[in-house]
Amino acid sequence: MRLVRRDLKTVVVALAVLVLSVGVSACGGGDDSSSTTTEAASPAAPQSTDGATRQRKAKKGAEGDSGGGSRASGEASEFVPKPHHDSGGGSTQFKTKGGDNSVQEFGAEGDSAERKAAATALHDFLDARAEQNWAAACEHLSKTVTESFEKLAEEAKHPGASCAVLLEQLTNPAAKASMKAEAENADVRSLRLEGERGFVIYTVPDGTVYTMPMVNEGGEWKVSTVAGTPIG
Questions:
Q1: For a Cys-Cys bond, which of 65, 80, 130, 220 suits 180, CB 3.0-4.6 Å?
Q2: Phi-psi region of 207 (alpha: psi -120 to 50; beta: other; left: phi over 0)
Q3: Residue 110's domain spans which residues?
Q4: Which of the 8 DSSP states describes residue 110?
Q5: Into how many domains does the chain fold?
Q6: Does some domain include residue 19?
């Protein structure tokens, strides 16, 4: 089955809106500019694939197929987590006088164990995304995001499109270098926590401070959108 270019473009545009709306609505406001490392692309329609390829599945039961036109292939099980060093230090260091500190003041500062667990989920997502292992990246996305992907695919009359397919189509291939740099250098500094929701605050070498909304699902931290948002 093929996605008509028009239908897929509709999905991609809707997902681009989702990237912004999930992060903004979670904290009640703030900067609505998303990270430049992941951008909506204008993709060609995926090519048809053989039955075996279409049946590859990620851990959540979604298809692991990347649409046949994949820029990189890989099963989720092939992803190998990488070690990362995080500086910590809490969110106080990023508060700005008279600025929007909605993320920096959200809930309370998570303890070191919670921050480490959330940081691991974030790093694994960023690393999988940088490797273009879309199935592995999807395993670290929250249920709300993956269900939104499925709903949008159904509305576009292509219910077979998996999270991996849509995440690939949403990601600009020209951002590969910047995604790799972000994944390699992301330094988690804080986890702001309230109940099952949280925000990881992390920095990159150029001094940009990013936040990523997170959610704890059954004791496991998940990323709640597909790109970090600059704050400051």
A1: 130
A2: left
A3: 5-67+86-231
A4: P
A5: 1
A6: yes
Alpha-helix runs per DSSP H in 43-94: 51-54
Position 25: which residue type?
Answer: S
Residue 77 lies in a domain: no
Question: Tokens 């395993």 label which residue?
Answer: 139
Terminal CA-to-CA distance of the chain, rounded, Å? 45
Query: Angle between the 163-170 and 5-27 helix axes, to the nearest 10 degrees?
Result: 90
Model confidence pLDDT, tens digit, residues 167-181: 998 888 899 999 999
pLDDT, residue 165, reads 87
Q: What pTM was computed for the model?
A: 0.72
Give the whole-angstrom CA distance, residue 171 versus residue 41.
6
**Residue 76 belongs to a domain:** no
CA angle (14 as vertex; 13, 16 as ends), nearest 5? 65
User: How confident is the model over 21-26, as a mean pLDDT?
Assistant: 36
Half-sphere exposure of residue 66: CA atoms within 13 angstroms, side-chain side:
20
Instruction: Tell me the two tokens of residue 159.
Output: 């219910």
3-class state of residue 176 by DSSP: helix
Task: Tell me the sheet residues that pair with 231.
Answer: 209
Q: Round to whole Å and give the CA distance between 89 and 91.
A: 7
Q: b/e string for 172-185 if b means 16 or more Cβ within 10 A?
A: beebbebbbebbee
3-state helix, strand, coil in the chain (%, to 5): 40, 15, 45
pLDDT digits (tens, 9 = 90+) for 112-164: 999 999 999 999 999 999 999 999 999 999 999 999 988 888 887 777 788 89
DSSP label at residue 197: E
Q: Is residue 79 part of a domain?
A: no
| Residues in CB range of 85: below 8 A, 6 or more apart | 187
